[in-house]
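Wed. Picked up where I left off yesterday with TDP-4-oxo-6-deoxy-D-glucose transaminase. The coffee machine is broken again, so keeping this brief.
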Amino acid sequence: MSKQIIPFNKPFVVGKELFYIAQAVMNGGIAGDGQFTRLCQEWLEVNLGCPKALLTHSCTAALEMAAILADIGPGDEVIMPSFTFVSTANAFVLRGAVPVFVDVRKDTLNLDERLVEAAITEKTKAIVAVHYAGQPCDMDALLRLCDKHGLILIEDAAQAILAREKTRALGTLGHLGCLSFHETKNVISGEGGALLINDPRLIERAEIIWQKGTNRKAFSRGEVSKYTWVDVGSSFLPSELTAAFLYAQLEQGESINTHRRSLYESYYHQLASLEADGYFTLPRAQGGKPANAHIFYLLMRSNKERGELIEFLRERGIYAVFHYVPLHDSPAGLRYSRSVGDLPVTQEVSACLVRLPLFSDMSSRQVAQVCAAIFQFFAGAREA
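Structure written out below (tokens, as returned):
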């Protein structure tokens, strides 16, 4: 009998994706900014509470739009964590700016707001708050710093769809927010993203940048007699096929997150005794509840033990992975960025974090299988 495979991630459908895609085709237009693009944007505006949402073909594209809207240019500095995906930094390097890396907190793995002010210089233009695993940064502290120093606050909320800080959705707290709908996220469209424009003063220009630098949106509303090139921009729109798939997922977004929270809490309760025995550290969710249960991770005692656990699980058909190599240590990071301090928490977390399987149609039985294998691993370690 072949052993059961538990993948790290598994793309899924909720039911209406193919129906909506067929409807988009029958509508006679499958380029961007059609019916399903508008439905998705309206859904985000209503359910997240932002003045304007624009779908993009990726979160990377949303970040690149945010960099343009923030008027980032050569020599500007943008403060961000090193423990993040490369797109967070790339979007600003493409504008000629310098990412300035600050360490993260060990409890949330988010940007340590207590270290940010020391990194601000006369060249600083923006701060990027990355909500790791969908858990919120200390947005109040970061907003105070931005107000004090006249900075733009951009949220990299790639992992945070429908996650909230108190009553407000992540991605809607800064001037701009960026979402991802990549197939590894909670709500998916294969590739996809969205830019949330929370400062109404930026909406008109955002639409122009989104439409390749033209005033086409104003033209479509009858505000101008013809459209033309008026600013920088690019092809940031997804197709209607992508938007149709996404709309089906958005309609089920809350139920998706509810199921993922149940899986997260099952992991937590089953593994709590091993944490109590000192084998690893479990995630620390704000208020004791995972915001949207995007990631469940363990912080192991060493890099060596992490590698051994990943290999042990893989031999049993369970696929766990580690996460980011710190950007400040990467070849491009050394070339394009600078760091404030040695970033010891970033280094430790990067060396010791392991992500366990967590996907939207995972079963509680599969969670139990993963946990049983982890107990087996540490039983062997005790015997050794």
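Quick read: The chain has two domains: 16-248, 253-381.
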